[in-house]
Amino acid sequence: KMRVLLWHSRHDAFIFAPVRETLIGGFESLVHPTRGVPTVTWGVGSPIHAASRRQFANLRRGDIFVHLGPYDSNAPWWTLRKRGVRTIFYQTEPAKNCFGSPSDGNPEPDEIWDFAWSNLEACAAHLEQVGDYITLRYVPPGFIQPEPAALVPTVQAEKQHAETPRLLFFGYPFYKARGNCYRALQASLGSQLNATWTISTIGAFEDWWRDIGRRSVHLHLHKLCGTPQEQPPAFRLSPLLSRGARVLSEPCSPRDEAEYEGLLTFTPLAQIADSFRRIISEEGWAQGGHQRALAYKARFSPAVLFSSARVHELIQSNRPPAGWAVADPAAGRCQ
């Protein structure tokens, strides 16, 4: 059977869970013509130190290795490529250029996958400038099926139903420029605005969602909030939208916004407080979560994302990639 090995740093297990689960679901939706459905495993730690571990040693020609994130990203690209292993770097941060081009003097993977069009467009421009040819694919974190029990409110949550509705930020709100934006919203909304950044396991997240998150409007602010630089959608949207959250988002790049049209409410920072008040003034504003989750699933299920990015071509071809390409969301294919 074909093997797929996913790898990321040890301390990012929860942060990268939306991407990891999307990749697992996506690869398991594929069928190799002779090797069947891939066997997907994942591990954590430094790839340099892990190069001799069994997971790496077992990879053979036609297998796939994916490294997630900037930390410990000095993976054994060349060693694996010499064995015929397809290598992929999944870029997880806002980027102005690209990882792995010849200009940085480092070994590079066969492909770069990313969660945002703004990143991919910057990467493609950089690669063209330096004459590098790496395949690029748009594969954002997608719909992850929640456990059914996590969607059932507790007695305590029901008792809190009469509380004043809240606008919640899932993450640390005072990171870099985001802190200034959050404080500005606090000045307008007071105790109606809140944040949580201590959740580090899926179980804790499910408890938080069941008791608090499901009865709130959610806020999406960028790391460089309030700056003219276009910022990508964050990973935190995946678990929220998978549960049908209603999300007010700071604007993203036009191409990224098009992907989330109808799923997020994009609002300039200065209008977020008024938009929140308008939402909670609507009768039944907290309802419709199931329909929102289904709409997200229809467009962002792992199988749909892999099909749009034409990942099946990666596992069906024995030839190395011919050059970089950027998937066109309108055409639903790489070109």
TrEMBL record:
Source superkingdom: Eukaryota
Name recorded for this polypeptide: Glycosyltransferase family 1 protein
Organism expressing this protein natively: Haptolina brevifila
Lineage of the organism: Eukaryota, Haptista, Haptophyta, Prymnesiophyceae, Prymnesiales
